[in-house]
Amino acid sequence: MIKKMSESYSVKSAIVFPQHTNNYNTMFGGVLLSQIDDIAAITARRHSGTQVLTASIDSMDFLKPIELGDIVVLEGVVTHTGTSSMEIMVKVSRESHGSNEKKLAGFCFMTFVGVDENGKPVPVPKIECDSNTLQFLVDSADVRVKRRKERLTHTKELATYIEQELF
């Protein structure tokens, strides 16, 4: 089965309230990451039609601060699929108070796995790019997948040392 990327596209917006901010009146990174994980899971579920689990967060690049009173806009789309895995890109924008102009505040790539009711991986549909704007993300996915696999190998090597008592 093949699904168009636009079928997974998801958008979520929220106002940044005081409880979401640090002492600089900018959004806590952890709060933002929670919202990103949520929109990415929605995007992955729309694509796969299954329950999903977060497998990895490749990176989160914070480009501009999101301030108290801003509206944070999260856009998710599936940019690559494996057998049971899906790479999701989440674009983070901010709308300043009194302005409807969106400015890019950051983005990240995450990997989700489609699972059955027992938590076992299941096949997910392949993707078809239906946007010239997104074609670059599809074309560059193999590079990100290779880096992700290399990082996972390194992480597993590190885990054997970190599992031990540190001090």
Automatic annotation (TrEMBL):
Its EC number is 3.1.2.20. It holds the Pfam family 4HBT. GO terms for molecular function: long-chain fatty acyl-CoA hydrolase activity. InterPro entries: Cytosol_ACT, HOTDOG_ACOT, HotDog_dom_sf, Thioestr_dom. Keywords: Hydrolase. GO terms for cellular component: cytosol. GO terms for biological process: acyl-CoA metabolic process; fatty acid catabolic process. Residues 6-118 form the HotDog ACOT-type domain. It comes from the Bacteria. SUPFAM superfamilies: Thioesterase/thiol ester dehydrase-isomerase (SSF54637). Belongs to the acyl coenzyme A hydrolase family. This is Acyl-CoA thioesterase. It comes from Nosocomiicoccus massiliensis.
